[in-house]
Specification:
By secondary structure, the chain is mostly helical. Helices cover about 80% and strands about 0% of the residues.
């Protein structure tokens, strides 16, 4: 029982931190102004890791590579802790672990898109004047705009967030299958 609780807590903490790192990249990609509560909170949570990494990993091509590497390193540490808790030898899994960590970062990113889209939809119904609504709309607009061109409004309702949610869920299934395939190929499953 202790192991299950520890695994749950590790998964929760590392997933939230990994998503915060990826949200930082997303905010920079969409050029979200830094003077809003969402940006300030994400910077406060992630600066301790990103700032030192920026000294050795420069941004290139408009991409914050230091933050992406930070998310990947976070996934590696998470997977190492999970392996250690399960009693396995992490050195036997090291090459595979690096690739599975990358899939884990992809999973965090797609899950984050789902959660932000869900939050945007809920806020549009419950509290459209919320102080975080402009930031969330700014983040999701580049993802929803192409879907809105293809998916028509139904009776005045914008169903593009639902379409994005379904696309993200399908991507999560593909990522899970890839991870299972890698793990199964290594262990004969």
């Amino acid at each position: 029982m202790f192991t299950e609780i520890a695994l749950f807590l590790l998964d929760t903490v590392f997933t939230l931190f990994g998503m915060a790192l990826l949200l930082r990249v997303w905010m920079q990609w969409t050029r979200l102004p830094t003077r809003n509560p969402v940006s300030q909170g994400v910077f406060q949570v992630t600066d301790w890791l990103v700032r030192p990494l920026r000294r050795i990993i420069p941004g290139l091509g408009g991409i914050d590579w230091a933050t992406l590497v930070g998310a990947w390193l976070t996934a590696i540490v998470f997977l190492l802790l999970v392996i250690l808790l399960s009693g396995a030898d992490p050195s036997a899994l090291l090459p595979l672990l690096l690739l599975i960590a990358l899939l884990n970062v992809l999973k965090w990113g797609v899950s984050m898109v789902m959660w932000v889209t869900l939050l945007m939809a809920i806020l549009s119904w419950v509290n459209p004047q919320s102080p975080v609504t402009p930031a969330i709309n700014h983040l999701t607009d580049p993802l929803l705009r192409p879907i809105r061109r293809v998916v028509p409004r139904l009776g005045g309702f914008d169903i593009s967030p639902l379409a994005l949610f379904v696309i993200a869920q399908i991507l999560l299934m593909v990522i899970a299958r890839l991870g299972a395939g890698l793990f199964g190929a290594r262990f004969g499953l």
